[in-house]
Design a protein that fits this description.
Length: about 280
């Protein structure tokens, strides 16, 4: 892959501000430890990122994408990272259409223009066991309140998501609410917590506290979950522009097969090499 040539080489990328350190493990196992992953993701002591992305070989797809959160935990899906990896693979192969496998399944991607990629994120999981929740519950109206927020809707987009709909997103204490709600007892695998304000019938303003990463500038799977949950509540149509701190994503919940399509920008920031002292931490 262009810009990734050995164990310690990486590409720094972002999708709408959601940033990644991308490593290539297609030639062999990297041996990256959890402490080293946390150090690499540290914005003061390491390179800094929301997630570390490891590209691995896959016999049935163009690549397998492993996702490590900033705390070293593994995640099932990341829409923004999928778009970034698709852009790298397209640059390498010259193809516009690719398929990337994550722990959540196969995700087809298409290059729509310079720096613009669409990913088919598949159908959302709407049953309580799909998310998963700790027990049977109405996923459209969870009994989970804290401070100024209550009554979220939940779904899975490869990761568990809960979306709170609020009237005033600007003054919400997300840094306080997010860590507690992420680990609420109803989420046995923790959850990504979205806070959404409906701006119009096809406009959503969103901020997401990501499990294992904290408050990020954008969350692709969270934007998909916000659109799905807002449509289920009758708040928007099946398509919307989701405005986040780092940029906008266009989300469409296709009626024919219930797949969620996500389109948005990707950018390469720089190439680099990780110091072995950090790698071996």
């Amino acid at each position: 892959m262009s810009g990734v040539s050995d164990d310690t080489a990486f590409v720094k990328m972002h999708g709408a501000g959601n940033d990644f350190v991308v490593l290539d493990a297609r030639a062999g196992t990297l041996g990256l430890t959890k402490p080293a992953a946390r150090l690499i993701a540290d914005r003061r002591l390491g390179i800094g990122c929301d997630q570390i992305i490891i590209i691995e070989p896959d016999p049935e797809a163009d690549a397998f994408m492993r996702i490590l959160n900033a705390d070293g935990s593994e995640s099932g899906a990341c829409g923004n990272a999928t778009r970034c990896v698709a852009a790298l693979l397209a640059e390498e192969t010259g193809r516009r259409r690719l398929v990337i496998r994550t722990a959540a399944g196969l995700l087809p991607a298409e290059i729509q223009g310079p720096g613009l990629v669409e990913v088919d994120m598949g159908p959302p999981g709407l049953a309580w066991g799909d998310i998963p929740l700790a027990g049977p519950a109405d996923t459209l109206h969870l009994r989970l309140a804290m401070g100024p927020v209550e009554n979220p809707a939940a779904c899975s987009m490869g990761n568990p998501h809960a979306t709170y709909f609020v009237d005033d997103l600007a003054h919400l204490p997300i840094e306080t609410l997010g860590p507690a709600l992420e680990r609420a007892h109803i989420f046995p695998e923790r959850a990504n917590i979205g806070f959404a304000q409906i701006i119009g019938p096809d406009q959503i303003r969103l901020r997401v506290w990501e499990r294992g990463a904290g408050l990020t500038l954008a969350c692709g799977s969270g934007a998909c979950a916000a659109l799905v949950n807002a449509h289920r509540r009758g708040l928007v149509g099946r398509s919307a522009a989701v405005q986040m701190d780092g940029g906008n994503l266009r989300i469409h919940w296709r009626q024919a097969d219930h797949h969620v399509l996500m389109a948005g920008p990707v950018a390469r920031v720089f190439n680099g090499r990780i110091d072995p002292e950090i790698w071996l931490a």
